[in-house]
Amino acid sequence: MTALPLFLALPSAAWAQQAPVSTQSEVESQIEFSADEVTYDTNADVVSAQGQVRMERDGNYLAADRVTWDRKTGRVIAEGNIVVVNPEGDKLIGDHIDLTDTLRDGTVENLLLVLESGGRIAAVRGTRSETQTELVNSVYTPCPVTTDSGCPKNPSWKISAARIVQDRTTGRIHFVGGRLTILGVTLPLLPIFAIGGGTQTGGYDGVLVPGIRINSNNGLEFNLPYYWRFDRNRDLTVTPHLYTGAAPALEARWRHLTSIGAYQVGGFVTYGRVPDSDAVDINPESRKGIRGYFEANGRFQLDPYWTVSSSLRAATDKTITRQYDITRDDRLRSFINAERISLDSYVSIEGWAFQGLRSTDKQDRIPFALPAIDARFRFEDVLGGQVEVQANSLAILRLDGQDTQRAFASARWDLRRLTPMGQEITFTALARADAYHTDESLKTPVDIYRGRDGWQFRGIGALAADLRWPLVGPLWGGTHRVTPRIQLVVTPQTDNMDIPNEDSRSIDLEDTNLFALSRFAGYDRWEDGSRITYGVSWAFDRPKWSLQADIGQSYRLTREPSLFPDGTGLTDRFSDIVGRTRVRFGSLVDITHRFRLDKDNLALRRSEVDLTVGTDLTYVQAAYLRLNRDISPTVEDLRDKEEVRLAGRWQVMRYLSVFGSTVFDLTGQAEDPLNLADGFQQVRHRLGIIYEDECLELGVAWKRDYERVGQFKAGSTFSINFALKGIGR
């Protein structure tokens, strides 16, 4: 017989012409069987098969060269190239196996057990039952044991044990008399040690890999996370932190995956001295008390259109996040957002809150945004174009400061056409009606942001035409594209200064907003007065390298004074000249330069360079930013600065790399009169070495932060990073 599948409910017709007719048991009726050659001993009731023998029952699968099946005792003996697969996906490979006819329970000699999660267990002998597999003189590793070319190699880490027990009910793998070997170094383990098998059922309660750090503020730190798994979709990790230079701390994180989304809640709490965060306090005072940090975030998909997401963050003081290396953010943002997205509409209802962590932040003057509502609806084929209708409402509240409420409705129509000569023309019409109400405007120190108390109303209208003409042709063995562009915007004079400015304070003319209808970032300010904007883009491509350059300028057609502060590049009728240049040599070199040139003397008012040289594994990155705009220091959101950032990574060996980064503040009083630095201020440094392969991560890092918050200075931190990949929690 050749590869003939047999259902054991009808065995006699296939095995021997004189086999007795009998009623088969329920167990036998569930077994599927095939082989190249099958013989049946009617007296002994023994089936012998060889050549691509295949047996399957209830998801348990057996493949071997030779199989002998005693139907009286239910014993199945298989030999040669044996593969047994259970319903969970674990694969057992061996030379000799003795099973029951369930194809689940039995004993194997010289076996290799390949787990569904990718781990491997090799053993001299193994016994398998319904819920457990016990292996004697065995070795476990989740790491690859062969190279890419198929040659054998030692795994990065492995656990050798006198006995290993795989519990399929809990997903745990227990080791008795185990030893851990990492990169050839053998370490003893506890007499009885267990890990998760990496399967969905493989989570369990237990201690995770500890962490060690040395910090100039806290001394030597040791943390030991403990993990509780309550279900497949819920877990809790509690981490005690011990310090030689500070009081102990406790960290916890709860995670929950639901049927419609996921969320997590975390916190950090300790007791100790709270440094005075006031940078100008002549007699700083510190106090002792409970210090803590809280965070939570989540996202839920209520239906195909509606999504609810949130992120909540809070700290008891301004320095705890830096002292305990929780985050370097200088502002904690919290929000709750309900969002509806469809093909032709967008609705967002959200609330925002902020906590300032800088020494100069006054929390009572930091705003809440509640509610913030934005709704947009798109309609196609209206007068040949597309119409977007928008409604927006925002309430800004402060405990001690100016409060503002805003609402507006707008409609925008866009029509895009291509001429027979290849020109792209876009016509735009915009109409908007605004209503504002504000209180206590005199508490805002910058007068151009205040507006007037009470109700204010504003109407906005604009017409625009935008023309691009791409011209493509061959050049120097490649292809180049020249795209001149000109835009006309017509908009009447608009009343702006009576309106409070909450979201349009950060103004900077650059290549990304040169052709915008309004160069203000938000809605509270509108750029009135008609203007012409013109520019050109040039792109050149040839094999392995490319170049792209953009440059442009605008000209105001009206003589009315501009809203923009001096130094923004938009004050006079002619704007400053802005542009961007990007050069790439394959994937090895990528450099981008953004600039703004003074229209009168071509001085660099903004210069930003980003450079990357190297591959994904070995590279150097450099960034330089200089803002030399000479804006009044009273305009707090537009202060000049100069900064250099450097970063790099060097792959010393295949899995071994050295990395580092540094930031320098080059801002002096010439750029910013309010800056106390001398033109060269170290901000932070980082240096480390890491070994990382498919299943092991081991590294040492040092970082130093020079930032001060009142009395507190972050200082240096040394940390050891160690992770065994492939261990399920």
Key terms:
729 residues; mainly beta; 26-stranded antiparallel β-barrel; 15-stranded antiparallel beta sheet; 3 helices; 44 strands; 2% helix; disordered N terminus; membrane; cell outer membrane; LptD; LPS-assembly protein LptD
Summarize the helices and strands and which ones pair or pack.
Elements: E1 6-7, H1 12-15, H2 26-29, E2 32-34, E3 37-41, E4 46-57, E5 60-70, E6 75-85, E7 91-100, E8 106-114, E9 120-128, E10 132-141, E11 157-167, E12 172-176, E13 179-182, E14 185-188, E15 192-196, E16 206-207, E17 211-215, E18 219-223, E19 226-231, E20 234-243, E21 249-257, E22 261-274, E23 287-301, E24 306-315, H3 320-323, E25 331-341, E26 345-356, E27 368-382, E28 385-397, E29 403-418, E30 424-439, E31 454-468, E32 471-475, E33 478-490, E34 531-542, E35 545-556, E36 577-585, E37 589-597, E38 604-614, E39 619-627, E40 641-651, E41 656-665, E42 681-692, E43 696-709, E44 712-724
Antiparallel strand pairs: 1-2, 2-4, 3-4, 4-5, 5-6, 6-7, 7-8, 8-9, 9-10, 10-11, 11-12, 11-13, 12-15, 13-14, 16-19, 17-18, 17-44, 18-20, 19-20, 20-21, 21-22, 22-23, 23-24, 24-25, 25-26, 26-27, 27-28, 28-29, 29-30, 30-31, 31-33, 32-33, 33-34, 34-35, 35-36, 36-37, 37-38, 38-39, 39-40, 40-41, ...
Protein name: LPS-assembly protein LptD
Domain LptD C-terminal: 290-654
Signal peptide: 1-16
Radius of gyration: 35 Å
- Multimeric organization: single chain
Could you name the ranges where pLDDT drops below 50 across 5 or more consecutive residues? 1-29
**Count of helical stretches:** 3
- In round numbers, the mean pLDDT is 86
User: How far from one another are the termini?
Assistant: 49 Å
Shape: globular
Helix content range = under 10%
How much strand?
Answer: over 45%
**Number of strand elements:** 44
Largest sheet: 26 strands, antiparallel, barrel
Structural class: mainly beta
Keywords: Cell outer membrane, Membrane, Signal
Function: Involved in the assembly of lipopolysaccharide (LPS) at the surface of the outer membrane.
Protein name: LPS-assembly protein LptD
Subcellular location: Cell outer membrane
